[in-house]
Design brief:
The chain has two domains: about 10-135, 2-Layer Sandwich (Ribosomal Protein S5, domain 2), CATH 3.30.230.30; about 140-205, Alpha-Beta Plaits. It is rod-shaped, with a radius of gyration of 24 Å. A five-stranded antiparallel sheet has the order 2-3-6-4-5, with helices on both faces. A four-stranded antiparallel sheet has the order 9-10-8-11, with helices on one face. It has a two-stranded antiparallel ribbon with strand order 1-7. It is an alpha+beta fold. The longest helix has 18 residues, at about 115-130. It has five helices and eleven strands. InterPro entries: Impact (IPR023582), Impact_N (IPR001498), Impact_N_sf (IPR036956), Ribosomal_Su5_D2-typ_SF (IPR020568). One of its GO terms (cellular component) is cytoplasm. Belongs to the IMPACT family.
């Protein structure tokens, strides 16, 4: 089995959400956002710090990518491991990515202790993610098909059968060209099918990362 098979789909949030949780007079305001990049996550955190300028803490965690390749968590002055980590733990538990969860805390005068803080940040993150609408992200791979014009009917049937999307059609140096994209999980199946058709060449554009 390969180290970790790449997924060609994952879930993220369809829109931002907010939830509140209170314990021992401390108020926790949780925000969850769909994001597309680390830069966007950090901009949102900066915006929350301005909005809640008088809050005691703004703790957060984010994950970006199908396998959460880019991730980070921040305790913002809370004892190490009591805020960012439980927030990130809920991102994992609820199996989402391309998401930022930030929890704003207003201290209520009663110390919660390490265990109490972990529970409070975990529950805040759980609530805001659980109530947020989701959407599925499908990862697509671009590819080009080159073939003799008399194979047009055969190639079009292949593309339709595989559920690929045609982006552009063209003609160059006596060959027909189709620029397409397909769900990543179907790519190798399509390549095998294309290889079985004499005179049809399939070129895949490899991702940069």
């Amino acid at each position: 089995m390969m180290e970790q098979e790449k997924q060609d789909h994952y879930e993220t949030l369809a829109e931002q959400n907010q939830a509140e949780y209170s314990v021992q007079r401390s108020r926790f305001i949780a925000h969850a956002y769909p994001i597309h990049s680390v830069e966007e996550a950090l901009e949102l955190v900066a915006s929350l710090r301005k909005e809640y300028y008088n809050a005691t803490h703004v703790c957060w965690a984010y994950a970006v990518g199908a396998l959460r390749e880019e991730n980070r968590m921040n305790d913002d002055g809370e004892p190490s491991g009591t805020a960012g980590r439980p927030i990130y733990g809920q991102i994992l538990a609820q199996d989402v990515s391309d998401v930022l969860v930030a929890v704003v805390r207003y201290f209520g005068g009663v110390k919660l202790g390490t265990g109490g803080l972990i529970d409070a940040y975990k529950e805040s993150a759980r609530l805001v993610l659980m109530e947020a609408p989701r959407r599925e992200v499908i990862l697509l791979s671009p590819f080009t098909l080159r073939f003799a014009p008399h194979l047009t009917g055969t190639v079009m049937r292949l593309v339709k059968t595989m559920g690929a999307e045609i982006l552009e059609q063209g003609f160059a140096q006596g060959e027909s060209l189709l620029e397409c994209r397909i769900r990543q999980g179907q790519l190798e199946i399509l390549r095998s099918a294309a290889a079985a058709i004499y005179g049809l060449t399939c070129t895949v554009e490899e991702p940069n990362s």
